[in-house]
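Hey, quick one: can you model this chain's 3D structure?
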Amino acid sequence: MPTFETLPRFTTDLQHLTPAQRRRFRRVVLGAFVPDLRSPGCQFRPGLRIKGVRRAPGVFELTWDGDGRATWSYGPAIVHGEQHIVWRRIGTHYILTGP
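Sure thing. Here's the predicted structure for all 99 residues.
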């Protein structure tokens, strides 16, 4: 199972989401993102719309709902052979305009 950590800004952003948005994010992460991370070659399904953030090399954007976005990056492995994900921001498209 991949390991995760959250930056303080992500935690703050998460608190501003509605309970329904938090549930949707969790469903997408557990039902699609994690299984895709574990797939051979780490191929993400097109529906997740994962892409690099142009102004932040090494940072990726995950679309978890129509306007729901989360940014993340890979961190150093904590468990040998498993990906480590650093969650950076979460919210709507507006999170891509800030630091």
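One thing worth noting: The two ends are 29 Å apart (CA to CA).
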